[in-house]
Amino acid sequence: MDRFWGAGQYREAAEQGWRRAWAQVELGRMYENGFGVPKDYKEAMRWYRKAADQGSAWAQTNLGWMYENGRVVTKDCKKAMKWWRKAADQGQVNAQVILGIQYTKGKCGPKDYKEAVRWYRKAADQGYAGAQTNLGWMYENGFGVPKDYKEAIEWWRKAADQGSAIAQANIGEMYRDEKGVPRDYKEAVRWYRKATEQGYGNAQYELGLMYRKGKGVLKDVVMAHKWWNIASVSGHKKAIAERDVAENKMTPSQIQEATRLAREWMEKHRKK
């Protein structure tokens, strides 16, 4: 039995009523991204609106993006926020996080950290790692809530347990800088290493610093160069600078070894 649905099947379902709103959202996504049909933002907008008018939170979230990015329609932050709020009020975690980011950055109106925290918390309480990471950041900096390093770490642990590389690196920083936990360089290295394994450039840079300074690990310029070289692939400017400075103090054989180690790591972790 052929279980692959194309635009024709989605259109039939979207027009005939069987799981109509779901099919309309999928059809909108196909037109927005050019999956199996020519990319057509106008057509995507039409199907999203049909589903959104039926209460589809996914469609409402996507409509918000269309308005924010000015696809087909004129950019309109107010309308974007209206649709995101409709979705968020239904418990749609992506929309809740989007609202949190909007209130944090003030892109579609004045900054409001308390409102940002409120939306991050709604999504975080549903187990959404991105929201937990952002909520931890708000507690670390005292934005919209009293500054509380322990609370920040608590939320980051929740996100880290789900594999959030940013949260893992943040926990490493807290152990390194003695924020909310006793200073423990070995524990900092452990958390940085978790994040590096996921290809997070900032953690790779920080791990390189730990090797250069000999904190939590034996001082090793070759290993430091390795991690900075890996981080440089993603364009990490500080890592590039540290690597170039380190090379001035390294022997050709050390540079060759560090390059070999970096190449082996990247080959092993290359996305297939």
Defining traits:
272 residues, Serine Threonine Protein Phosphatase 5, Tetratricopeptide repeat, 15 helices, globular, mainly alpha, disordered N terminus
Compact overview of the structure:
This protein is mainly α and 272 residues long. The chain is built from 15 helices and no strands.
Task: Describe the protein in words.
- The chain has 272 residues and is mainly α.
- It has a domain at 7-87: Tetratricopeptide repeat domain (Serine Threonine Protein Phosphatase 5, Tetratricopeptide repeat, Alpha Horseshoe).
- Helix content is 71%, strand content 0%.
- The protein is built from 15 helices and no strands.
- α2 runs antiparallel to α3.
- The model is unreliable at 1-14 (pLDDT under 50).
Radius of gyration: 23 Å
- CATH class call of the domain at 7-87: Mainly Alpha
Q: Can you say what the CATH homologous superfamily of the domain at 7-87 is?
A: Tetratricopeptide repeat domain
Structural class: mainly alpha
CATH topology of the domain at 7-87: Serine Threonine Protein Phosphatase 5, Tetratricopeptide repeat
In the CATH hierarchy, what is the architecture of the domain at 7-87 at level 2?
A: Alpha Horseshoe
Largest sheet: none
- Which regions have little confidence, pLDDT < 50, spanning 5+ residues? 1-14
Overall pLDDT: 91
Q: Specify the number of helices.
A: 15
Quick one: how many beta strands?
Answer: 0
* Beginning-to-end CA distance, first to last residue: 29 Å
N to C succession of SSEs: HHHHHHHHHHHHHHH
Estimated share of beta-strand residues:
under 5%
What is the general shape?
A: globular
Estimate the helix proportion, in percent.
Answer: over 70%
